Amino acid sequence: MGRISHLECRECHTQYPAERLYFCPSCFAPLDVKYRYDGVRWTRSLFQNAPRSLWRYLDLLPIEDESKVVDIGAGFTPLIKATRLGQELGLRNLYIKNDTVNPTFSFKDRPAAVGVSKALEFGLKAVGCASTGNLAAATAAYAARAGLRCYIFIPREVEPEKIAHAQIYSPTIIQVNGSYDAANRLAAQAAEAYDVGVVNINLRTYYVEGSKTLGFEIAEQLGWQTPDHIVAPVGSGALLHAVSKGLEELEQIGLIGSSRVKFTAAQGEGCAPIVEAFRRGSDTVEPVEHPKTLAKSLAIGEPGDGIYVLRKLRECGGYAEQVSDPEIVEGIRLLAKTEGIFSEPAGGVVIGALKRLVEAGKVDSDETIVCLITGSGLKATDSLIPYLPRPLTTEPELGQVAQIIGR
Amino acid sequence: MGRISHLECRECHTQYPAERLYFCPSCFAPLDVKYRYDGVRWTRSLFQNAPRSLWRYLDLLPIEDESKVVDIGAGFTPLIKATRLGQELGLRNLYIKNDTVNPTFSFKDRPAAVGVSKALEFGLKAVGCASTGNLAAATAAYAARAGLRCYIFIPREVEPEKIAHAQIYSPTIIQVNGSYDAANRLAAQAAEAYDVGVVNINLRTYYVEGSKTLGFEIAEQLGWQTPDHIVAPVGSGALLHAVSKGLEELEQIGLIGSSRVKFTAAQGEGCAPIVEAFRRGSDTVEPVEHPKTLAKSLAIGEPGDGIYVLRKLRECGGYAEQVSDPEIVEGIRLLAKTEGIFSEPAGGVVIGALKRLVEAGKVDSDETIVCLITGSGLKATDSLIPYLPRPLTTEPELGQVAQIIGR
After folding, report:
1. What CATH code would you report for B79-105+209-387?
2. How many CA atoms lie within 13 Å of A175's alpha carbon, on the beta-carbon side?
3. What is the arithmetic mean of pLDDT over B317-334?
């Protein structure tokens, strides 16, 4: 008897055994992994000598056989007290969860590590995904470490730089003569036809569990407390939902007193379907046909977990904010300038959203706030260059530098 | 009475108080920081609840006032058992020290964190460096976090992409109308004239101490043992020297039984002055006038610590290997393909050197070997693109994919 109890439909609550299911066969809604919790005496001291990675929470993750764990050291990333950024914004208890320092430099290490481990446990020989960004790199890296074949499906129109990071891990890159949707569809068909574990499709039920470790870590790093407020970047909505699920699980086993957190969902203008729905007071998300935002990793026009994010925001009294491209760049630069952390555009969205919350008086200066910074700015440096100031120039003479330094 | 005992000349062994000295006033050789060690009862359990960063070793670092520590979470990076790479090379106890996951994505976080902290302790108002690479980014980031002004000196010929990472932290970039040497000279003059803490010049004595934490961590992560062999990338030679110093300090305080390690110094062909000197059996290093290697971060034609690296290699029975550009790329790809770790070219040099050691029968298959992977490949993705294979292409039809996947 393992640690997973069953899979449960998020809508009709039908229960299923923990097999290779990725949607509810009766109502097609997503499935959540439910755990037994009875094999472990849950105490905080459990974690004192635990591995310094997300695998410290193995007992709360959907891998039954520890020998299948694929580990490059993802997770347990720093939670940094952001004193200088806080001063800038008038916030006294601001924290940055720095997920840029994962092995493939984004939070996608978390779900990819769990998804690829689960593929090993299921005895699959190949994994894959349709992605050109963080997920492609993470999936290819964990497949490499595991020694599994890996197929990355990409659309026709992709610049070589976008895919180079994933390519370095030597997956098979399959460029589909069509759109991103076409690539995604082909990946889903290949998953069925050739028994490929496409992590965010037919392994999704397990894969998303990796992201909840962000919630576990935040609580543990705050001394087994939840913050008052978490600002999360939202693409599909899976991350926000997973972090919330993680905190609820910690409450359930008594490691934290309450999982009550206010969430803010942050999106980029030009692809903010969840923010728009929240503002309309609607329960349904209108797809965005042509996403257009600097925050490419959030440019998901039809967010799979959109309705669950909306439910969560309403239940917790949270907010939804959208941020323009210039605000994204300003957010990236402000975070770097005050705290020395270089974020990809998704993190600029988060800082921009936080700034908007402050300006609108939606946060209290004493609230404990955690900003999720989910990927490294090195992945998008080129797109930032147009916004950077030109260097000062000088002749190589000390006297000339006086004007610059000697003030 | 603080933890620093004194500064000591590496050549004439004259002792000086721990002030702002960066070379021996009598013989111009480098100075090393020496510690008292008597304020602490040194036991391994000291580190059980220590911070998960290089600051866990604060008692062994040259900062007297803990309130001056500038911390973004650098260090205590994963030491990964490299089973698949080991199999590929016929090595049973191979480890990767993954310093790509530091806050600015290279090992330079370590000396920059210590250098900028020391600048705060000295009461300086500004720091800086002459660099276009890892050091520029790290110095700018720690200055940002500390709230210090920061001046980055760069030469005339630099592509905007090279400097963008540092720029994001909003230092003042000073582009000197001249060569890298001219930029370096101007930085040194400004350090003197305007009381700027140029981390790798007038703060060098303290700055280099940060790098020895790599040695501390390797020993601690191996269960307070030294490995048999460390393969280190060598530019100035400061890193190899510092790692060796760190292990000697651990032996001195009794945390490890012996600091005996065989070192291999790895350089890129086209800038391998230390390898050349080692092969000649010479004690002196002939400068390389025009360094030319893919491993830009190692392209230092006149290595400051070259003679100390040579001494160390001879004393420990170590090796020196140089690696061509194609071998560098092959090393990067091999590491990524087997272990899911994406290194900058310096790490490709290390893996290439290891491969040469194996082929020459210089390592035993049971030796415990640690490869220092010192920076993220995301910093040099563009230079790798020409070496990557083209993606396979397909129409968006399942039948077409059969040829690729269905084997």
Report:
1. 3.40.50.1100
2. 13
3. 98
